[in-house]
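Ticket 4471: requesting a sanity check on a complex prediction with alpha-methylisocitric acid. Repro inputs:
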Amino acid sequence: MGYTLSQKIIREHLVSGEMTPGSEISVRIDQTLTQDSTGTMAYLQFEAIGVPRVKTKLSVAYIDHNMLQSGFENADDHKYIQTVAAKYGIRFSRPGNGVCHQVHIERFGIPGQTLLGSDSHTPTCGGLGMLAIGAGGLDVAVAMGGGPYYINMPKMCKVELTGRLAPWSTAKDVILELLRRMSVKGGVGKIIEYSGEGLRYLSVPERATITNMGAELGATTSIFPSDEVTLRFLEAQGRSESFVSISADSDAHYDEVISIDLSSLEPMVAKPHMPDNVVPVAEISGLKVDQVCIGSCTNSSLTDMLKVAAILQGKTVHDDVSLVISPGSKQVFNMIAQTGALSDMIASGARILECSCGPCIGMGQSPKTDAISLRTNNRNFYSRSGTASAQVYLVSPEVAVIAAIRGEVTDPRDYGTPPEIEIPNRFLINDNLVVIPPEDSSLVRVVRGPNIKPFPLNTEMPDQMEGKVLTKLEDNITTDHIMPSNAKLLPYRSNIPYLADYCLTPSDPDFPEKAKKHDGGFIVGGANYGQGSSREHAALAPLQLGVKAVLAVSFARIHMANLINNGILPITFANASDYDKISVLDNLVIEDARKQILSSVNGLTITIRNVTQECLLEARCEISERQARILLSGGLLNHTRQIARDESDVSDTNGQEDT
Ligand code: MIC
Ligand code: SF4
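Returned C-alpha cells:
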C-alpha cells in the first residue's frame, strides 16, 4: 500500500516511533518560525536550554503581532528578539515586513520540508506542500536546539475537490464549508490532505487560506500537494530552485474521505462566536454593518488585496462603516502601491493599516459597543476583537468589501460580476527587512528590557496532589478565554506575573483571586478545552497561579502539549457524566499521583477523590511514557535539564538571567 503525502514527509523526517495513528512519533524539524507575542518566551526558553546556535536549516523570528507601541514594552521585546536572533543564528524579520505566515510562504517555505512555528496558523505553509505544524514556544525552542518534535501520529483525512469555484465563491468558502461539516473539533488528531481535479484551479494563496484555517478545525495540519501551481508560485517568487514535486501515492490509505464539489459552494459566513457557526451569506443578508476589517494571515495576499481594490474602485465606503485594510506583507503592500490598487483603496475612504496582525488579535481597531464587525480573519472568538459586546462575522474579502460599500451584508451574487484580477508572473522581491545573523556572534549582546520578567518554573510532581476546584467551564473554552490577548495585554507576553491577573477572566472574572486565595488548585473544563492559539501563556499563567491539573472532557492538541510542557496535569473524565459530580470549590485529592500518572501510560485510569461530595471519579491521562516523565519532572525544561545533568554537560542553574 502506498503513502499519503504527509506520511511521505513524516517518513523522511522520522526520528522515533511507529507511524500508526495515535502512537507517539518524533520528527526532525527543518525550519522554525516564531512571532513576537510567543517569541519572547520561546527565546527565553531557548536560552535556558543552553544551545550556542540553532541547529535547524532555517529559523526566522518575525515581528508582526505586538506592533502598537503605546509604551516601551513592545519595543523592548522587539529589541530582545532582534538581538537574541543575531546571537543564535536566526533570521530576523523586522517590523513592517509582514505577518509571519504570509511572509514565510512567499519567501521561505519549501515543499516536502517540515516547519514548526510558535503560532497555531503555521499550517498556512501547507498550501505550498510543507508539513507545517503549530506548537508551543518551548517545543519550538527545543526544535531550534536540534531536538525532534513529538506528536501522536495523526489519522489521515482526504478532502477530494472536484469542479471549479463559481463566480463570487472563494477559497474562504471551501474552509468555511469544511468547518460547517466537521466543527471546530472535527480535525483533532488528523492531517487534512487536499486532492482531486479541483486542485488545479486553486492558486497557492488560495490554498494557503484553506490550510491556514485548518487550525480552526483543530487539525494537526493541512496540506496540498506540490504541483504545477506550486512551481508557478515559486517561480514568480524567484525561488524555483526550492521546488520539488510531491503528492500522495494513488493507492494511499485514508482513514476518512470528504468530497467537496467546488462548483456547488456558495458564499458563506461564520457567525459569532465560533468559526464553525457557518451559514450561507444569503441567510444574513441585509444585516447592518459597523466595521469591516480586511487582512490577517488568512486573507491578505496580493490576490485578496487586488480583488478588494478592484471592487472599491470609484466607490466610497458607506457613511456608517469603518473599513480597515491590512496587507499581509511588505511585498503585497509594495505591489499594491506600484499597481495603483492602493490608491483606489485610499480614495474609497479605507483606512490602511501597516502589514501586521492588527485587528485580528485586538491590536487596535476594537469596534464600538454592540458593533457588527465583518472580518476576513480566521477566528471570531468571544471578546477577541477587544470589544466584548461586538459580534464578529468571518467572511471572504469579497463579501467584506461589498458590505463596506453597501453598509449591510449582501450576497455578492446580487452585486454584479466579480472583478477580473491579473496576478503578475513575477512578484516584487526585496528581502531588505530580513536581517541575516552574523557568522560570528560572539560580540552580539542580548538586550533585555525591564518588561522581561522570569517565567514560572514548575517543581517536581508531588506524591499527593490536592486542591480546590477553582472554576468549572463549558465546552470549547479557547485560549482567548484562558489568556486573553488584546492591545492592553499583549505587551506583557514576557511578564507572566502581570498576565496571570487576567487569566480566565472572560469566563470567570474572579478566577485569579480565587486561585491566589486557595493557593492554586484544579480547573474543570468541557470538551475541546484550550482550542485556538498556540500561546503557552495559557499554561504559564495558570502555572503562575498554582494550577496543578486541568480535568476536562477533552483537550485541544497544542494546549494539552503546553500544559504537559509546564508540568500541569491534563486529565479527561473517564465517564463524561462525572462532570456533574464536581462543583466549584470542591476539594479534590489525587493520591499516589506519581504512580498513577505512570500507570496511566498503560491505559489505567487515575482515581480522584472528591472529598467534598464524598465520591470517587475516574480520569484518563492519554500521554506517552516520555510525557509522563516530563510531568513528573515538573515540565519539559526541568526534564531536559535533568537529562542534561545526568549526562553532566550543563550547569545546574535555572538558566534565566537576572533582569
Ligand atoms: C492567534 O491568532 O490567536 C495568535 C495570536 O496568532 C496566536 C499566537 C499568540 O497567542 O501569540 C496563535 O494563533 O497561536
Ligand atoms: Fe496574526 Fe491573526 Fe494570523 Fe494570529 S490569526 S497570526 S493574530 S493574523
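Notes from triage: The radius of gyration is 24 Å. Leaving this open until the requester confirms.
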